């Protein structure tokens, strides 16, 4: 059954934790709507089973629906549940680990940390972090033996609380941060085995669980907290479900904790070898080829960069190899050690330590860059370069106390021009000299 979004889950089997209500139920319902052969739900809320089954069946009466009371904080229960899925449905193509426990905000009489009890900490961690690990481990165990081309996927639902640190809800936010970190590690670990793992971090979502965060708090205080956290607007469980189902589908084969590719790009950039868009596309296609998946489209690399705020396209400039080698920390450290020893040996004061730099540049030379043009313009725009180009040299110096001496400027002219001094607001203590080519020489230096 192909949906209008092009997602076809026909013949595929899925598991959903926390699937009897909220985001879990919305995910299970959408999986069925897109043609899932079977949806297995684990949730301790047995009173919600009948209504959940009715909602999922209404979406697709052909989907085989199973609901079981499973405690995800118990690894043995989780392992048995996944084994039953594989035994009865013949495999497991996708899993959404949505189950989680909230933490109620309290009006503090002191530091919030002092209100964190041992029992509450262990209870929330056991579901939000331990439960995710137990489920992911059991799911990977079931998926790793599937035939090549099955393209199994796992989605772990965390929370914006993983990255928004407000000094409260210690157990909840820490568990979600741990879940997010665990998901990144697991994605990198299992990708070579043909399994994709991704994470979703919902914001303020309207679910039965969301009200428990603010239980007993006045509405005005609740609104202030949400506004401060940047979560004043609420989203629906179906909004999150669409993201989860897309990540579980084969439509998202190029997405595997895309953080793997992001981190590799950042590593290349830090070493002075930032890749071109074509290079990003090629490395992605190599990863996909190992899994017998189709290559990415023409605009995938550009869209990939847009999806990740930590990445950006920029014009590059060439950098000399010998100069790049001088950025080696060991070389720099040895030089500073020599300087420190010299200062100590001769008792040199900080105001007698100077750094001089000479730089030369040609006036009137422009470089390629981004410009804004009319939308109807065709072809690449041209910016006219001035015809008058001259070499200028500038010598500058500053000492360790922060005192700088006036600039020494050398121009490639024969005589001083009056308008240098009359028509410009140059500081009076700047020294201006002339030479035939605009460079320094021994005589001028003395």
Architecture blueprint of SSEs:
Blueprint: E1 13-17, H1 22-33, E2 38-42, H2 49-59, E3 64-68, H3 75-89, E4 94-97, H4 118-143, E5 153-157, H5 170-190, E6 196-200, H6 219-228, H7 237-248, H8 259-270, H9 277-289, H10 300-307, H11 321-325, H12 329-346, E7 354-362, E8 391-399, E9 404-411, H13 419-422, E10 431-434, H14 442-445
Helix pairs in contact: 1-2, 1-7, 3-4, 4-5
Summarize the structure.
This protein has two domains: 13-256, NAD(P)-binding Rossmann-like Domain (Rossmann fold, 3-Layer(aba) Sandwich); 353-445, no CATH class.
What is the residue-averaged pLDDT? 81
- CATH architecture identity of the largest domain: 3-Layer(aba) Sandwich
Helical percent range?
A: 25-40%
- Class per helix and strand makeup: alpha/beta
The CATH C-level class name of the largest domain: Alpha Beta
The stretches of 5 or more residues where confidence is low (pLDDT under 50) are: none
Task: Please tell me about this protein's structure.
- It holds the Pfam family adh_short_C2.
- The chain folds into two domains: 244 residues, NAD(P)-binding Rossmann-like Domain (Rossmann fold); 93 residues, no CATH class.
- The strands form two sheets. The chain has a six-stranded parallel beta sheet, with helices on both faces.
- With 446 residues, it is an alpha/beta fold.
- The termini are far apart.
- The chain is elongated, with a radius of gyration of 32 Å.
- Helix 1 runs parallel beside helix 2, helix 3 packs parallel to helix 4 and helix 4 packs parallel to helix 5.
């Amino acid at each position: 059954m192909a949906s209008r979004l092009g997602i076809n889950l026909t013949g595929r089997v899925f598991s959903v934790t926390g699937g009897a209500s909220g985001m879990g139920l919305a995910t299970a319902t959408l999986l069925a709507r897109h043609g899932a052969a079977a949806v297995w739900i684990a949730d301790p809320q047995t009173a919600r089973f009948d209504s959940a089954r009715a909602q999922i069946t209404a979406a697709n009466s052909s989907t085989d629906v199973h609901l079981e009371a499973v405690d995800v904080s118990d690894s043995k229960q989780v392992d048995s549940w996944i084994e039953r899925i594989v035994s009865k449905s013949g495999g497991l193509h996708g899993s959404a680990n949505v189950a989680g426990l909230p933490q109620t905000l309290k009006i503090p009489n002191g530091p919030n940390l002092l209100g964190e009890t041992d029992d509450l900490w262990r209870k929330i961690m056991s579901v939000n972090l331990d439960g995710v690990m137990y489920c992911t481990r059991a799911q990977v165990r079931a998926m790793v033996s599937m035939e090549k081309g099955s393209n199994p996927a796992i989605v772990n639902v965390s929370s914006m609380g993983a990255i928004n640190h407000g000094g409260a809800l210690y157990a909840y936010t820490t568990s979600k941060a741990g879940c997010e970190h665990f998901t990144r590690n697991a994605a990198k670990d299992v990708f070579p085995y043909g399994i994709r793992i991704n994470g979703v971090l919902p914001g303020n979502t309207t679910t039965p669980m969301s009200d428990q965060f603010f239980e007993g708090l006045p509405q005005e205080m609740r609104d202030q907290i949400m506004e401060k956290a940047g979560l004043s607007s609420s989203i629906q469980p179906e909004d999150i479900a669409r993201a989860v189902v897309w990540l579980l589908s084969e439509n998202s084969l190029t997405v595997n904790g895309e953080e793997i590719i992001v981190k590799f790009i950042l590593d290349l950039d830090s070493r002075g070898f930032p890749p071109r868009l074509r290079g990003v596309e090629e490395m992605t296609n190599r990863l996909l080829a190992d899994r017998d998946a189709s290559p990415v489209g023409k605009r995938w690399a550009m869209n990939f960069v847009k999806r990740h705020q930590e990445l950006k396209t920029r014009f590059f400039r060439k950098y000399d190899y010998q100069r790049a080698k001088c950025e080696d920390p060991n070389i720099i450290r040895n030089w500073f050690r020599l300087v420190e020893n010299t200062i100590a040996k001769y008792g040199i004061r900080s105001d007698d330590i100077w750094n001089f730099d000479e730089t030369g540049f040609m006036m009137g030379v422009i470089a390629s860059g981004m410009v804004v043009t009319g939308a109807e313009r065709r072809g690449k725009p041209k910016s006219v370069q001035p015809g008058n180009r001259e070499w200028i040299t500038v010598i500058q110096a500053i000492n360790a106390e922060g005192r700088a001496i006036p600039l020494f400027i050398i121009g490639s002219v024969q005589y001083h021009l009056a308008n240098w001094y009359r028509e410009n607001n140059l500081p009076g203590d700047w020294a201006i000299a002339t030479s035939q080519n605009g460079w320094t020489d021994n005589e001028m230096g003395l």
